[in-house]
Design brief:
This protein is mainly α and about 280 residues long. It has 13 helices and no strands. Its main location: membrane.
Length: about 280
């Protein structure tokens, strides 16, 4: 009974607002809510809006590159630390430190570094390397990769921590068996050890996937969606139509699509952690 107030707040603040958002997406609301059913007109308009489709394409490119690169880099860092190298504690702290920063801070720092007028490019140009270019944030063809680079720099440490915890939990007898059979270390990791860490990999993918959906702050701090719409993402699309264009029904329709995307992203994690174990 003591938890009932908490459950009521959770239902009202989270579930209630999600239901309200989905409901508003089926109305013609603009600046203020209008509880008039308008069918799926907002969704039809949404998927015929070039900016929305461009933002979805950007999110897919960013998401695939970000998740794959973070998994690979984080796993390699975890394997390196698992070999019990010197100064392991210091190196582990350095690897994990970027994850303690917010995406806003990460975006601002990387925007400064990739700014051709004051960042790495200008420094090396002033030193005599005049052909060097690192101006991704102002290049429409490379801007999305600048976002990926900043995001991987921040999040690879999280994957490293998760994978290292899993590697340290591997039965020592398994490693003894690998050595007795003469299996190379790299093959032991790839074929024997890492497959046993599948639940951790799924958890890491889900966490990274949620970061893809919530990439608004990084994009705003780093490129503000530009140049043009080169790095526009659904989260920024929603915020722009909600607060700048005062079209709450259209923004709610986009938010509902993203809600479904998040549900699809966490479904594998729910299955692995809860359903399959039962």
């Amino acid at each position: 009974m003591a938890l009932w107030p908490t459950w009521i707040i959770v239902l009202a603040a989270y579930v209630g607002t999600m239901i309200w958002t989905v409901g508003i997406s089926f109305t013609p609301s603009k600046l203020v809510p209008e509880m008039v059913f308008a069918g799926g007109k907002q969704y039809e308009r949404l998927f015929h809006t070039s900016r929305w489709m461009n933002s979805v394409d950007n999110m897919l490119v960013f998401g695939v590159l970000f998740v794959v690169a973070s998994l690979v880099l984080g796993t390699l860092m975890a394997i390196a630390l698992d070999r019990k190298i010197a100064l392991e504690g210091t190196i582990r702290t350095i690897y994990l430190y970027p994850y303690s920063l917010s995406f806003i801070v990460t975006g601002v720092v990387w925007r400064w570094m990739m700014d051709p007028t004051l960042g790495i490019q200008k420094t090396l140009n002033d030193l005599g390397w005049t052909s060097f270019r690192f101006d991704w944030v102002v290049d429409p063809d490379k801007a999305i990769y600048a976002v990926v680079l900043a995001a991987v720099w921040q999040s690879a440490g999280l994957v490293m921590a998760l994978m290292l915890a899993g590697l340290r939990g591997v039965d020592p007898d398994l490693w003894k068996a690998i050595k007795v059979d003469g299996i190379p270390i790299w093959r032991g990791y790839v074929s024997i050890v890492l497959p046993t860490l599948r639940p951790i990999v799924v958890t890491a993918v889900v966490l990274l996937g949620l970061g893809v959906v919530k990439s608004y702050d990084l994009v705003v701090a780093l490129t503000n969606g530009g140049p043009g719409m080169a790095t526009d993402v659904p989260a920024k699309f929603i915020m722009d139509f909600l607060f700048l264009r005062s079209n709450i029904a259209f923004a709610s329709a986009a938010a509902t699509v993203m809600l479904v995307t998040v549900a699809i992203a966490i479904a594998p994690w729910i299955y692995v952690v809860y359903i399959r174990k039962r």
